[in-house]
Amino acid sequence: MRTISQRELRNDSGAIMRALAAGESFQVTSRGEPVGVLTPADRTPLDELTLHRAGGPMRFPVGVTRDESALEALIALRGDR
Which family, according to the similarity comment (predicted)? Predict the structure, then answer.
């Protein structure tokens, strides 16, 4: 994932849009602080973590699927308490 500044996003928006369409992702910073992530429309931030996480693909706890919402996953992990 490439890091770009807010200024780069504004000044080079056409090139950044073409790179997004080609599958590249960007972390956007403002004054050196991360403020957001741009990912291609067909990939979610979770996909980015799964694809680019150091050490291999992210592993989900037993009983949790990628299609569940965060609330559903927490309920599944907690069980009947």
Answer: Belongs to the phD/YefM antitoxin family.
